[in-house]
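Thanks for the sequence, V.! I ran Ketoreductase domain-containing protein right away. Repeating your input here for the record:
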Amino acid sequence: MNPVNIEPYKLPADATWLVTGCSSGIGREIATLIASKPNQRIIATARNPNDLSYLPDGNSNILKLPLDVTSVESVDAAFTAAAQQFGENFHLDVVVNNAGYSLSGDTEGATEEEIHQAMETVFFGTVRVTTRSIAVMRQAKERRGGLIFQISSLAGLCAFPGHAFYHAGKFAVEGFSESVAREMHPDWNINFCIVEPSGVKTNFEGHSKANIKPHPAYLDEDMPARKLEKYVNAGKKLGVGMEPSALAEILFMIASREERVPLRLPLGAVSWKLSKSKFETLLGDFEAVKDISAMGQEI
Ligand SMILES: NC(=O)c1ccc[n+]([C@@H]2O[C@H](COP(=O)([O-])OP(=O)(O)OC[C@H]3O[C@@H](n4cnc5c(N)ncnc54)[C@H](OP(=O)(O)O)[C@@H]3O)[C@@H](O)[C@H]2O)c1
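Predicted structure:
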């Protein structure tokens, strides 16, 4: 397979960042951090731009724009507005696809509309912003390369009960991003980093969770999804997880350390350990079916 992220990435001193979902949580922390860095420009976006009032007005390095990732018109309008604001020398150096929510609950109970809306945000929204970002990075007059962070999740590597559509969206983002990363011409130096955090201390559970109507066949508290709910709620009470500001600092470190960008970045000990264990289990499963898989050939 052809390699990805071949050359070390060098963050320009006057880099422009674009981040989706900056109203709260991780997106807000990234926008706040970049806005605090001298000469770095931030295009902070949110469905409702009033949610960006925590960023100062009247700073030419800070652009606040409305952007709903589910709307083609909204995404196009944001890219047009950014190009107009920064003029001839408009370039995008770092893009963070952060917007997302989780459709959670009993898979059998989900409606077609709920399923499509979830994929529209998590998967198609990421696709829209990514493809437009690549075009801007590729066409920049002076070739500057670029870096696209996809805020996936441990949920993009491991699947747990009761979140089938969230996992489907994040797994789709991971496959899409890996394929696109392999599609880049090496001279473009366009890099991808799929970020896979475990718990982050944001209000994701309260603010960004859509709950499927409970299905009567899955109510028993011994059902796997009910047990996981209990475990997650206990963890929330204990305040486990990383600070979103720490996650923002790590993204800035990856962008600015002038080294090769990792294609995948599990974040947090839980994410690293569970992902590793998943792949180790998979290797064992592969060995168990090796003779069948070979279909009479040598492996
Ligand atoms: N918190 C965790 O434990 C955790 C772990 C792993 C991965 N993540 C991922 O991290 C990302 C950010 O989540 P968070 O923890 O920071 O929670 P959050 O504070 O609830 O942030 C979610 C953000 O996504 C935005 N959003 C939702 N739908 C959108 C749309 N159609 N267009 C544009 N923006 C939209 C929300 O905007 P509104 O305010 O307008 O709703 C909000 O800004 C998500 O992709 C999530 O899957 C979170």
